[in-house]
Amino acid sequence: YAHNMQHNNTHKHGGDDDDGDYDYTLGTDGPPLTEEEEDATTAVDKSGVDGWWAWWVVLCAFLVMFMALGLSYAFGVFLVPLAEEFHVGRGTVAWVGSICMCCQLLTGIGAGPLSAQIGFRKIIMFGGSLISVGLVLSSFVTQFWMLYFTYAAIGIGQGLSYIPVFSCVTQWFEQKRGLAVGICAAGVGTGNLVLPPVLEATIQGFGWRRTLQGLSLTVFVLIFMCGWFMMQRLPLTIKLNYGKYIKDRRFQLFWLTNFLGSFGFIIPFVHVVPYALDHGFGEESAAFVLSTLGISSTAGRIVLGYVGDRIGHLQVLRLSTLMLAFGSLLWLLLGQYPVCLFIMAVVYGTFAGAFIATLPVCLVEVFGVSDMPSVTGLVTSGAAPGTLLSAPFAYVTTITSSSHYTLHHSRTTNTHLSLSLSLS
């Protein structure tokens, strides 16, 4: 009886035990909870932390990230068919992908508070449903401008998915949190490797419209099934004091990191192939450089996530920003040499992946688990401006300057140097 009363008081007042951890027990027979309380906080045993169920959550999170955010990097395979179908330039088509990613980042601001109010599970499944609807509507468009709205819906669905996924994984781990988040984030890199060739083959065989329809069904089934297992372990702060965080110098530095990095972070992934071809590389060699970037990014999320558990995640984040600047500088000065370009791909890919995987863990360590969804949404929203403008700007630079790669990576280097100084 005393345990049940303590359980009920914890839900009502947000109380905690003596060691500062919430103590919920799976299957406890206590006073009935409201539907909102059951959805917002799932009663689980503390022994599940770093246990087998926690790793099951990681597997589901990996699959959600594979499908939800892997689509963002696979958009390039639709550039040519969309441009040919609607007789528009590739720079115009690039705006579709930029709008999608911008909406994804901005949606994170609301995804955190919504997760606290109605639970991770419902938000993730709703986000997956919205992605699915956006994809199937895109397959029926008759005017190009319609894609701006359908892909905006896809971006909103992605934003509603990734914030709760990262937040859920961080709740289920204490000792191996960095490794777990790294594996979760590796789902994006794996999607970047697997989805483009699969979608390219499907487009050639069935056309881009049928490909989007099949992708819509796959997204709905996979995210809906995996989202069902994304349960909360701890309650979240429902009403976040945004003013407090906006005035917090630590928050300002995290936000500035994302803002500065967004203007150059994605450029190597977009421009490495044409850069290599422009400097005499064969098509297979140029494609291998891109694959090296993707593989290194996936490996960096896992390996440096594990390293962060040992030496500190903030140290890994600082090292990552510094090495991103070094990779950009290496490309700027020695990128015309094949060996140096491959070294750049390994260095940049590894620490780009580490940056993505380490940031959520750092936010948990600095601001706490209960505020993590809302704070993560605010911090990542800083990347929205650069994400919106980088791809179209890259295209404009491409067609207006014969030395566009040098110009681009000079900007990228300066961006990441500033980013590193901000964190330091």
Structure overview:
The protein is an all-alpha fold and 424 residues long. Helices cover 78% and strands 0% of the residues. The protein has 19 helices and no strands. α3 runs antiparallel to α8 (146-171).
Mean pLDDT score, rounded?
76
What is the straight-line distance between the termini?
52 Å
Overall strand count: 0
Shape: globular
* Largest sheet: number of strands, sense, barrel closure: none
**Count of DSSP H/I helices:** 19
Helix proportion: over 70%
Provide the gyration radius in Å: 22 Å
SS strand fraction = under 5%
Element order: H for helix, E for strand: HHHHHHHHHHHHHHHHHHH
Task: Return the structural class.
Answer: mainly alpha
Query: Can you tell me the residue ranges where pLDDT is under 50 for at least 5 consecutive residues?
Result: 1-47, 398-424
Provide the descriptors you would attach to this structure in a database record.
disordered N terminus, mainly alpha, 424 residues, 19 helices, disordered C terminus, 0% strand
What is the structure about, briefly put?
The protein is mainly α and 424 residues long.
Q: Helix and strand layout, with pairings?
A:
Elements: H1 2-13, H2 35-40, H3 52-68, H4 70-74, H5 79-86, H6 90-118, H7 120-138, H8 146-171, H9 177-206, H10 208-227, H11 242-246, H12 249-262, H13 267-278, H14 283-311, H15 313-334, H16 338-367, H17 372-380, H18 384-400, H19 404-423
Helix pairs in contact: 3-8, 3-9, 3-10, 5-6, 6-7, 6-8, 6-17, 6-18, 7-8, 7-10, 8-9, 8-17, 9-10, 9-14, 9-16, 12-17, 12-18, 12-19, 13-14, 13-19, 14-15, 14-16, 15-16, 15-19, 18-19
